[in-house]
Structure formats: C-alpha cells, structure tokens
Amino acid sequence: MRPLLLFIVPVFSGLTASANGFETGPQGARVLGLGGASTAYINSIAGLSTNPGLLGQWGDSLTRISIGHLSQFRRSSFVGQDTYRRTDQELTVQPGGYFYATHGVGKRVAVGLAVTMPYGYHTKWPNTWEGRSVIQESQLSTYFVQPTVGFRLNDNFSAGVGFVYAYGKYSQRRALGQYDDPAAQSKFSSSGQGYGVNVGLYGRTGETLAFGISYRSGLNLKMNNGKLTTAGVPERDDSLYPSTADFKTQINLPSTLSVGVSDRITKNLLLTFDFTLSGWSSLDSLKLDVAASGTAPARSISTARRYEDALAFRVGAEYQATPKLTVLGGLRYADTPVRDEFINPEFVDTNTLGASAGAVYQLGRLALEAGYAFDYGQRRTARANPVIDRVANVSGTYRTGTHMASVGVAVAF
Amino acid sequence: MNTFYFTQLGRTGLVAVATAVLNACAPGQDTPTPTTSVDVTRYVAVGDSYTAGVSAGGLTRASQEYSFPNLLARQFQGASREAVFTQPLLEAGTGSGFIELVDFPATGLPKTRRVAGQAVRRTIINPGTCAGPDTVRVLTRNNPSSTLPQNLGIPGLALSQIETAGLGNEGSAVARAPFNPYFERLLPPATTRTYLQAVTDVAASATFFTYFQGLDDLLPYVQSGGQCGGRYDSTAFRNQALLTMRTNARKVLDRLAAGGRPGIIAKLPALTTLPLLRLGNGTALLERFSAAPGVFITVGNPFRPAQVRPITSRDYVLAPLLSRVGQPTAVVVGGATLMLPYGLDSRNPLRDADVLDESELTFVSFVLNGYNNELETLARDVYKMPVITPDGNQRALNLDVVLFDQVAGLISVGGVVYSPELVRGNFFSLDYYTLTPRGNGLLANAFITAINKAYRANIPAVDVNSLPTVAQ
C-alpha cells in the first residue's frame, strides 16, 4: 500500500490547485482531531457526511448518535500596499454544529441522517477600514441535511448513497464611500436552497487495511428572496440608491471527490490518509442582480471569483492510550481555490498548513469527544488595478489564521 | 499556600493562553516604515490655484487644509518627524467666498450659487477687464505677514507676472493695474516685492520643492471662449507668450532647483481633460440634442467677420453655459422677434464667447504643449532631475498619464469610483477645473508615487476615501 500512496501524491500534485475555500472544516469533534482524514475511518459516524459508503459498517443492532458543537474563528490582518496601514479583522465566531444518527435495518442495510454546516464564513472588518467600500462584513452559513442509506455488499465491502438538501443564508454589508456620511452603506441579505447527492464506497483489503472513496455533487444555492437596503444616501442620489430593493443571487458550492486509506499499524495505533479534490471552479463570480425599484433601473453587481479546483491532503492518527482514553492527531495541507488576481477582502483565503489534536473519553455507552485544529495561512498579496473601475478591491497583503474547536458526544445503544 | 500557588499559576497561565490565542487569531504583519532618502523637512510649494488649494471657486481655510501640498506635507511627516509646512491660512469660515451646490438635476449640470467670503476686506470694481467689469476682492492679511509661508501657491498668478513689482501691493488695487489679492495678503503692507523675490527668499532655506504652475496663465483665455487673456490667434503673440512662460519658469526653477535641491516638476494637464471643456464637447452636445437640427456656434476673431457653423467634435462649449443651450431666447430675424432655442437654430447660434472652438483650442494648446516640453527639457538637461516613471523616460511629472486621463476613464480606489463628472465624480470641484479634497488627495498620491520612484523613498499614500468630498 505504501508504494501506492507514493504514486497517488504526484498524480494529485499535478493538478493546478487543491481544497479549502469556505469549508468550515471536518464536521465532528473526533474527525476534527483526526485532521479530517475520515474517508476510510469508521470509528466515528461523522464519516457519514464524508463518505456514505461507511454507513454499511454500522449496520449492526446498535443505534448510534453523535452530536456536537463546532466553532470556527477565522481572522485575517491586512496591510495597505500604499498606505502602509494595518487593519485586523474583528473577532468573529462562525458557529457550527452537527448531528448524526445511524441505525441498522436488516442484515445488509443501514439508514442514517447527517445534519452538518460544512460551508460558511464570517468576515468582519472595522467599519472605517481602508476597504470599507469593498466590504465591511460578509457572512455565509449553510445547513446540509443528508438522509443516507448504506448497503453491506459482503464482509469486506459496503456502499452508500445520500440525498443532500442544503439551505444557505448570505449577507453582506459595504460602505458607500463616495459619500461623506460614514453611515452610508448597502446591506444585502438573502437565503436559498439547493440539492445534491453523496455517494461512496468502503472496503477492507486485509486485516489492517481499508480504503474509501466518495463523491458529493456540487450544489447550487438559489437565493431569490434577497433584500437590499441602503442608508445614508444624500437626497440628490435617492433615485440611484432607493432605500430598499429586491435582488437575486446564487452561490455554487463545490463537488468533492475524496479518496482515503486507513491502516492499523499496531493494535492501538491507526493511521488515516485522505485526498480531497474540491470542484471550486464552479464558483465563477458572485453576482447580485438587483431588481428595479422606484426610478432606479435594475442593475447587476458582479464580483469575479474565478475559483480553481483545489486539493487537500490530510493525515490522521488515532492512538488508544488506555481502554477509556483515545487521543487523536492530524496534519493537513490545503491549497486555496482563490487565484492571486482575485484575492478579495470579502473572503480571504490562502494555502494552509494545519495541525489538529483531539481526545475521546469513553463513559460506558457514551463517548465524550473534543477536537481542536489550527490552520496557518500563507501571506497573500492583492493588487487592485484602479483603471478597471468595475472591480472594487484594495491593494495590500493579507495573513490569515483559522482556529476550529469542537466538543460533542457520541452514543451507541 | 498551596492554593495560592495554584491560583497564581492558573492566572498567569490564563493570561498567557488568552494572549497567545488572540495573537494567533489575527496573524501579525509588519507594516513598512516610511522612509525617505532626501530631506523633506522644509518643503516649498510653488504654483497657482491648484497649489494654493482653491476648490469650488474659492479659497477657504478648509480648502487650504486639503491643498495637495498640505496633504503631501502631512505624509512627509510620517517619514520625517521634523518636517514642517506652513500655509497662509485664512480664518475659519467662508474665506474668499466659494460656489455651493443648490441642486443636481438629471442633466448632470449642477445648479450653484456663490457664497460671499468673510475674509474679503474690501472690493474694487475693475472696469477695464476684457469680459466686462470685474470685482477684485482684497483679503485679510496672512498673520504674521513678516514670514512667508512654505506654500507659495497663489491663485490666479500667471508666470508672466512673477517679476511685476507692486503685484502684491494694495496700492495697485486700482482699475487696470496688475494686482493679486492672494499675493498681497502674504506680504507686509506697501511692499514692491515680486513673486520671484518671494520664491528666492523661501527657497533659500528649503530642502525640497514642488512646482506646478502655468495653468492660470492659460485659463483666462479658455474661460472666456478665446475673447480674453491674450491674442493667442496671432502667431507672434503665441510665440511671445510661450517664450515668457518658458523663460519665467526657468527663473523660478533656477531658484528652486539651485544646488541640486530635490523636487518634482509637474507638467500641465491637457485643457480638454478639465470639465470646463470636456462636459461641452461637440460630440456630447450633438448626442444630447440629437432631436434638434444641429448645434450652431459662432466662430471668428477680431480680423475676420463672425461666421456661423455647425459644431464639430473638436469644438467645446464652456461648461457653465451648457444649461442655457436649447433655452428659447429672443432673436430678431428679418425685423421680426422670434423665440428660438439658443444654439439649436442657425439663426440663434451660440456666442463666440461661449465656445472654445477648434482653432482657439489649437492656439492655446500650442503654448501649453510647448511649455510642457520645456519643463521636461529643463528637468532632464538643466536640473538633471531623476527619472520618475517606471519606463525610465520622464523626469517631469506627466499628470495626464498618471492621473487626469485615468480619471477621465473612471478609476476605482478602494471600491470608490472617481470620474470627471461633477458632484458624483468626487474629483473636480464645482468651478469646473480645480479639485475636491479627494481630488487633491489623488493628486498628492501622484506626487508621492513620483517621489518614491525618483528618490527611493517609502512615503505612504493618502487614504483618499477618508477625505471629504467638498472643501467647504
């Protein structure tokens, strides 16, 4: 198997980029501690959202439930290219959580439900910062509900398929810096939904080795109920910026293709490896189609994103320290889908190197789980070209760091 | 004891953890340190309306605070603590008087009114000017008038006047005498000191300079539609006017650049980039009045009879007159009085004084281009100024390329769009040619970019969007 792994690395490295974007990280305390390498990992039912193919493995007589809270702190600093001024993002917490349940029905079939919040971000810059007319605050939250059915094909193989219903909320706020009034701003908020599927396969090729492969389709969150409110505009420009207007937008969430391997090195030590290719290239631009309102004609505010498909590589280790205590650790590297030319303060992203740690404490049927991860981001430089007046951006350098923390419980009865 | 020990440790640990987490939350970045390899501690600015800080047709304390030399000096202070810059500040208030916005209708032509200035000491009606009687407003004297300020920008000062004795003497504030009230207020009473002498005095202790002068030589001709400000239609006059500007610019620059003193020499922007002309371009007018049979203008000069012809893309109706185009006015045609739309009927053409026609523009541009070429030559061959453009060719600042032409094509600065449109464009002020505080910020940034390139400095740029949109 090791020679095979060595073969996979160059194959995936040959692709132009790798995965991160606005994923909120592994959806579960235990898999967070493991660094997210859970495509072939069956010790937590949180793997359900990563690979429905695992579900068949929980087809015994037990009902399993896993529930927990997950928080993401993502923060960037900015130094203006010409002004030399540093601005730190305000501290925000992107709340998250998860709920998983599985239950076996019959010998070969199991059903499961996964409720996760896999994509989102909350960017908040100080109201008076240099790029206030580009963005002051932006937030995306998504909720995925995935009913899943898993089949145990034989002793060694299982497959699963899930239907994904996604609901998303998006809001954005920016200053209208062409006016003197510091309160002049536009606020956008909208919500919408989309659908997708998630399929996967899990197999064991020996006593110690297992693999998984899964594919979740991309999703298109269609948001048709957007409300735009504008304040602080002088009377003479009322006709240009009516105080309220409707808008439509859509946000494409990427497909993910994951390949994973787990290897039980010793009785107490398990290693897992994952490659994930996220199809971020479906996110071409953020387009806000504002409807006509009063005398103001319809207009479209478009921000080019031109994301690239992105690859992430994750390694995890699980070590059973005592019969009750399991400790976890992980490392990961993720390429950013954001190209240099499209670095924008609404969502700052970089190639990241991350480390994680976690612990599971078993109390009878109940397992207490905790995980923590930190992603260290590369420095990125944005260059705005003033002559391209359609593009609102600021020139400068960004540094980004992300913390994720999760606590949860898992129970089997 | 034990408890105390743990509490102490716990507290220290908590603080350490919290600090570590918060620091890690906003990853650190070093900000560049502003530096300069040339001495900018005593900067002197020489020029006319732009340098003085005129905005919306007037000079007020606020507009002076946002003059481009003052914005520049503020940025210098970041790189050089000891840097000082003095301006001949007016008392807070309405200053020399200015134009304010009354209404901004959909035509894009602002309705304005003039606000009287509180710094006006007395007024003199000068009947002898070309465009009819003109009001000269004598202003309160700068305090203290014994020391000259470092901002020597004088609104309305022409290069041809730099050696005129008595230009800044109140005794000259009489009809038909050359007099500049803005220069007068800088000097002690009853002096015959010339502007060139003032520059000589201030330059003696200066370490850095900017020179942006000459636009006010040409503007009277442009603003009067070719009626005033000189006989540019005569070849001899044009050549003489250009020679005077070149010679006098050299006299001023000899003082400023003496001994290799570093500085920036700025060339004049093309007249057609100013809203004064740009808004009334023939093509734009023909589009606006496409329903009319045409737009007709009067062209001519004192030697040739006036002639009426349709407007072309190379003629410019003066922006302040644009709102009158198409308004019905009474004209006598064949003994009968008719109400005809002004400019839209060949029997009621636009007056010669309301249009800078193609040949008039050619005449005045000849002088402007010749002057700009001279500045480049002086910078390169005489003062050996450093190169200021990335392509390595220019040693005098070409503001058209780095600013005015860019704004004409719209620019986005930190998400805010700047355009040559009045009011909403936030670049040009209501007098159709000087800049708003934000426009001055962009101008200051053009100088900073040039200084950083030429003198290997790291002077931070002005955050233009944080400046006000109007100076008053």
General description of the model:
Chain B: Residues 1-26 form the signal peptide. Chain B: Keywords: Signal. The complex is a heterodimer of chains A (413) and B (472). With 413 residues, chain A is mainly beta. Chain A is built from 3 helices and 21 strands. Chain A has a single domain, classed as Outer membrane protein transport protein (OMPP1/FadL/TodX) (Porin). Chain A has a 14-stranded antiparallel barrel. Chain B contains 13 helices and 16 strands. Chain B has helices spanning 2-25, 49-52, 61-65, 68-79, 181-184, 195-204, 215-223, 235-256, 275-278, 282-288, 358-382, 399-408, 437-454; strands at residues 43-47, 98-103, 111-115, 120-126, 134-139, 151-153, 208-212, 263-265, 296-301, 304-310, 316-317, 328-333, 336-341, 355-356, 411-413, 416-418. Chain B has 472 residues and is of the alpha/beta class. In chain B, 47% of the residues are buried. At the A-B interface, β1, β19 and β21 of A face α1 and β15 of B.
Explain briefly what this protein structure is.
Chain B: Keywords: Signal. Chain A is mainly beta and 413 residues long.
